[in-house]
Amino acid sequence: MSLMLKQILRFKITIQTIIDYWKVTLILSLLFSGMAAMYSGMYPAFKDMMGDLTETGSLDQFAFIPGYEDMSSYVGFLNIEMYQIFWVLILGIIIGFIAASIIAKEIESKTIDLLMSNPVSRKQIIFERFVGLIPMVLIINFSAMFVLLGMTVLINESLNFWNLLLTHITSLPYFFAVVAIGLFISTLVDEKMKASIITMVIIVGMFILDSIAHMIPDYDYIGFLSLKNYYNPYDSLKYGDVDVIGQIILISFTVILLIITMIYFQHRDIKV
After folding, report:
1. End-to-end CA distance of the chain
2. 123-138, pLDDT tens digit by residue?
3. pTM flag (> 0.85)
4. Contact 190, 103 (CB under 8 A)
């Protein structure tokens, strides 16, 4: 057996995770690709109305969302309708929900002993579960991107492809950080639904904190407690700007939390 094949077989928990969630990956890819098609396709019908709302100042109700003042443009419309809500918040909640259930369901159903019967350490179980969820994030991410690109051409609107690519690439550290939070909660809480709900509350709570920071300048410091503060799709989609420091913070947060999760799971007492 070749060395490469042996290395692949060592990651059978990763492979099994990918297999277990391929249907979920397909469904979510279709769902968010459909959202991308729907919102981009809706823009021509709402273009004039968005211009009128901008002129009358009616868009001030969206002041908690970065880039709200540019909603009349195609990029601004996508930013508000798709990226700031359905992408950052809704997809973040769904990914967090899935990640939070991945270990907790094994403990709750008393099948964790089967998982730990593999010739790997508990630390590697956490690591492989994390790696096993990466393909899901990548497929959902880039399938939606290509659908959006195709719809943009179809409706004859202008969208910089490089900026679009940057927007989706820079979203990856954000979603990986969400996965890390979910896995951490999954090792703390032994009930699948409870772990998932707690993670959802954390994601929504961080979104609210970031929104408050944008609406009330005196409280902008609380935005630092939110993952969303370090990923702004509008800046990359509109200007091609990347918050390098924000990306580093998200990656560092993910690595540190994964290490904490692995250490905790390695030493916690699990009743089977």
Report:
1. 35
2. 999 999 999 999 999 9
3. yes
4. no
